[in-house]
Amino acid sequence: MIELLPNHLGGQWTTGGGPGSVLRDPVLGTALVRVDASGLDLAGGFAFARHAGAGALRALTYRQRGELLAAIVKVLQAHRDAYYEIACRNSGTVRNDSAIDIDGAIYTLSTYAKLGAGLGERPLLVDGDAVRLGKDESFQAQHIQVPTRGLALFINAFNFPSWGLWEKAAPALLSGVPVVVKPATATAWLAQRMVKDVVDAGILPAGALSIVCGSAEGLLEALQPFDVVSFTGSAATAERIRAHSNVVRQSIRVNIEADSVNAALLLPGETAGDAALDLLAKEVAREMTVKSGQKCTAIRRVLVPEGLYDAAAGAIRARLAKVVVGNPRHDSVRMGSLVSETQRAAVRDGMAYLQAQAHVLHDGSRHELVDADPAVACCVGPTLFGTRDPDGADRVHDTEVFGPVATLVPYRDMAHALALARRGQGSLVASLYGSDTRALAAAAAELADSHGRVHVISPDVAASQTGHGNVMPQSLHGGPGRAGGGEELGGLRALNFYHRRAVVQAAPAILAALTPAA
Amino acid sequence: MIELLPNHLGGQWTTGGGPGSVLRDPVLGTALVRVDASGLDLAGGFAFARHAGAGALRALTYRQRGELLAAIVKVLQAHRDAYYEIACRNSGTVRNDSAIDIDGAIYTLSTYAKLGAGLGERPLLVDGDAVRLGKDESFQAQHIQVPTRGLALFINAFNFPSWGLWEKAAPALLSGVPVVVKPATATAWLAQRMVKDVVDAGILPAGALSIVCGSAEGLLEALQPFDVVSFTGSAATAERIRAHSNVVRQSIRVNIEADSVNAALLLPGETAGDAALDLLAKEVAREMTVKSGQKCTAIRRVLVPEGLYDAAAGAIRARLAKVVVGNPRHDSVRMGSLVSETQRAAVRDGMAYLQAQAHVLHDGSRHELVDADPAVACCVGPTLFGTRDPDGADRVHDTEVFGPVATLVPYRDMAHALALARRGQGSLVASLYGSDTRALAAAAAELADSHGRVHVISPDVAASQTGHGNVMPQSLHGGPGRAGGGEELGGLRALNFYHRRAVVQAAPAILAALTPAA
Q1: How would DSSP label each residue in B41-58?
Q2: How far is Cα A292 from Cα A469, in angstroms, rounded to an integer?
Q3: Chain A contact present for B449, CB below 8 A
Q4: Minimum CA–CA partner of A237 in chain B
Q5: Are B146 and A505 an interchain contact pair (Cβ–Cβ within 8 Å)?
Q6: CA B451 to chain CA mean position, Å
Q7: Whole-angstrom Cα distance, residue A419 to residue A198?
């Protein structure tokens, strides 16, 4: 019988009471482990997190909680090889792609550990200066932020089992808020192993970190008013969470990261021989193929001036043609597989849906798989679509195909380009390519209302730019509208979600006693 | 036929096509005006606001939009007498109570006008410093805030037709976001008249300020992804808004201000002869009677040490006994009426519900009405309940009776007092009374997670404190949990709701071009 991974809840390891779901190797098709959450005492486990876990975390200062994060970093680094092994087997990713998930998590944790050290011994966060409320200074208002007295429930996506956990857990734990993570079933193994290693190392107070693997059933019902829930995944599931009767009734704070049809935009004024076009082609090819395009931040639409449509198509095609697809264990392979048969079917369906309004510029099915059986392995070659009807092809702007797929879209002028970018109805990220500083700045300002992040690649940052799709802990991650309206990371801004802002109106001596470290 | 007030939508005045609802004088019972929103072109009107209104507002700088607010202040000041007249007739309020609504609005607008002047000519808001994203400084991240490209829909409560409009409209307009207000029907007259005066004065661009009076039907369906909606009212309606299919599907940003069972807490260590007890009694009596207790911030629970229960009851009772109730037009009257027969019935029902778990310490029905017919006027005398079973009397902690009603609750020790305050499940405000600086600061920090505002009244601020229930524009207004989880005001913090935060990652020269005023 395949190993059944235990859940960690209420400070204890507990296996589910049902047969569970089998996690598979998406390249070889073999069964790996099982997960199950049947019969868990969610109410009891959540109460333990809220009282024991949160109480112990809140008794620490920000500096001390930052030290906990630094200790987690050490544990994860010590087990790094095991995580790469699990990622390869369960996610079908090549080493470079696993690194985004694993080393990206470690880097994010390290960043928040340092931010914790910077916050020091203060018992709460001061928000701005005190302001007088009358004619003299005898009565003033001081805003503060204090940790919410609940737990943070993370319902996470399958594409980042490691980073998706730790990029949320780092600010939550630093804030003094205990974490319960429900990883996506298909790739839950890595998250479970990491939690197990951290729990076994005895770093965190009991109840500070819990994991429930398997069905999400009952999790939302177990939430209480001061809990928060952070979801990453499809817009359809996001709608169900947001409208859930318990969530709505209790005013439970919700953060959503959902679908996003991100754009890359080559500004007008560049020619086929300029560096900007080459930088665009390089970034598009990279974003299409990293993690087989299974990133919510990946480029889905490539907007170029009409006159550069063919040149852009050629440049991207040339790069895609070199991508070797197949078994991630093979040295020559640059792109592994999708995470599951379900995803492979969804990507194929999505491609057929797009193709009804587009033509194929680079056909991914022509890529021969290296060291992988096409009948078994969930590998899909990179496909570039193109359309000559940017306004009429609505599917291009509305459809996120979560795989190595993008569409080239020509535009007439800058106003048209911006309007097309906005057809995404709110996205996580747009990237801009060009060499005109003022034009790039103006375009970034124009897109800031509908994009959580605008990533500008000018020739002078070709070597130092951090990548369209890479989420840096220093920067906001999230987007309005169909991207879910959420906010994550952005340095200390991430702590806002796990704190409650309040204002204290009082005599100055009382405000001084409230914020001794300020 | 009674006058039918027109709506202002799509830059035009339009009367509804139905018979409408009649607004009444709650003291005399007479019909005043009618409102109706039947057959309005909401989609067209909203589109006009989003394009014409928002476009014109966004073309201005923050300083210029601040000047628009200053111009609105002048118009409202010029028509102040008419507003007091309408408030008296439609809300049944005495002059001091009308002032909170009318002059409170003008003060709030003035505050945001000054904040606009302080923001100056900048085209967008800079959020923090640029941070480097690599080893050198060649590629950096700068967070910014830009106005959301949608409209702000306000669905407002009956108790503050003026302040409720302008405390939201001031930060929205300053942010460059057009406003559509749907005032509560019972008291819509004052909001409609104010909007009419401002529109007639030609201050704002067409489409920047719209008003729909009557039913809210169709308003939420007409919203689009970058719109925001701000609701003040009951928790039941708040649930419907939050879970509304269009709101959920489009990730529309929602701010909710709902029920709140606010507490006043006399700290341990005071005696019957101390100033703190007298300050508590004075504040409780004032909060119970101002606007006949129809304030979401009013004191509903009065927590006192067990040993001071009788002294507190006596002190509050003595103040309530002096309150003269009746026709607000009469010079001797200090407390007018509730806004409607519906509210009178709801308050009476709520009092009966509370009384099943409490006893009467001061009986409001003993107050004889001055110059008002008890069979017609919606006047209700102030009633103080008491309970000797603070833990068992759950209705006291769960029930907001929206009238001149509060309950005295004894506690054993400070931990018990804090636990009882939290039984409100998240409130807008708690006030603390005492003379020990450190104890007051500690209690404020303890309550900050479950209260949007903690108002501390020590003897030294007896003259300068701004009042438990008064919402100052400098201070956050909102509370977690059952209070709705919203945030309003708090100075510039109010602009966050009407902006989208984004990060621009680029070369320093591009970031410099993005934020020339920074």
Answers
A1: -HHHHHHHIIIIIHHHHH
A2: 13
A3: yes
A4: B249
A5: no
A6: 15
A7: 47
The answer to whether B143 contacts A444, with C-beta atoms less than 8 Å apart, is no
B88 to chain A, closest Cα gap in Å: 28
Note the pLDDT tens digit of each residue in A21-37: 999 999 999 999 999 99
Considering only the beta carbons, identify the residue of B141, B147, B426 that sits closest to A225. Answer: B426
Q: Does B24 touch chain A (CB under 8 A)?
A: no
| CB proximity under 8 Å: A 206-245 to B | 225-226, 235, 238-239, 242-243, 245
Helices and strands of chain B, counted as H and E runs: 16, 22
Asked whether B214 and B243 are in contact (CB, 8 A), the reply is no
Residues B230/B236, Cβ–Cβ less than 8 Å: no
Q: Quickly state the pLDDT bin for B1 (edges 50, 70, 90).
A: confident
**ipTM given for this complex:** 0.97
Distance CA B316, CA B431 (A): 16
Q: What confidence score (pLDDT) does residue B313 get? A: 98
What is the arithmetic mean of pLDDT over B175-188?
98
Q: How confident is the model at residue A436 (pLDDT cuts 50, 70, 90)?
A: very high
**Disruptive mutation site among B133, B251, B427 for chain A (greatest number of A CBs within 10 Å):** B251
* Cα–Cα separations (whole angstroms), residue A263 to A170, A300, A405, B212: 29, 6, 12, 38
Query: B480: burial class by Cβ within 10 Å (0-12, 13-18, 19+)?
Result: buried
Residue A518 has pLDDT above 50, yes or no: no
Taking 60 as the threshold, does the pLDDT of residue A268 lie above it?
yes
Parallel, antiparallel or unpaired: strands A359-362 and A383-386: antiparallel
**Separation CA B460–CA B275 (nearest Å):** 10
Task: Write the Ramachandran bin of A332: left for phi over 0, alpha for psi from -120 to 50, otherwise beta.
Answer: alpha
Please identify among residues 254-283 of chain A the ones whose CB lies closer than 8 Å to any CB of chain B. Answer: 256, 258
Nearest to residue B263, comparing CAs of B442, B460, B398, B415? B398
pLDDT at A123 over 90: no
Size of interface A-B (CB pairs under 8 A): 272
Helix A62-78 to helix A163-175 angle, to the nearest 10 degrees? 150
pLDDT at B517 over 60: no
Which residue from A242, A437, A449 is facing B146, i.e. has the nearest CB? A449
The β-bridge relationship of strands B499-506 and A451-457 is: parallel
Strand order in the sheet with A31-35: A4-5, A31-35, A21-24
Which residues partner with A301 through β-bridges? A263, A407
Give B372→chain A minimum CA distance, Å. 37
Contact A76, A110 (CB under 8 A): no
Predicted local distance difference test score (pLDDT) of residue A517: 54
Q: State the residue for tokens 């700045």.
A: A441
- Beta-carbon separation of B476 and A148 below 8 A: no
Residue B476 phi/psi, 5-degree rounding, is -55, 140
Give the long-range contacts of residues B78-84, CB within 8 A, separation 24 or more: B78/B197, B79/B193, B79/B194, B79/B197, B80/B106, B82/B193, B83/B162, B83/B190, B83/B193, B83/B194
Residue of B115, B449, B460, B489 best to disrupt the A interface, most CBs of A under 10 A: B449
Interface of A with B in 129-168 (CB under 8 A): 131, 133-134, 136, 138-139, 141, 143-144, 146-149
**Residue A141 and residue A506: Cα distance in Å, rounded?**
7
Tell me what the mean pLDDT of segment A251-262 comes to.
Answer: 94
Active site residue: A88, A213, A296, A378, which one? Answer: A296
Does the pLDDT at position B75 exceed 90?
Answer: yes
Per the CB < 8 Å rule, is A465 touching B147?
Answer: no
B243/A243 CB distance under 8 A: yes
B229, B505, B511: best to mutate for the A interface, most A CBs within 10 A: B505
Write b or e for each residue in A234-267: b if 16 or more Cβ atoms lie within 10 A of its Cβ, otherwise e. Answer: ebebbbebbbbeebbbbbbbbbbbbbbbbbbbbb
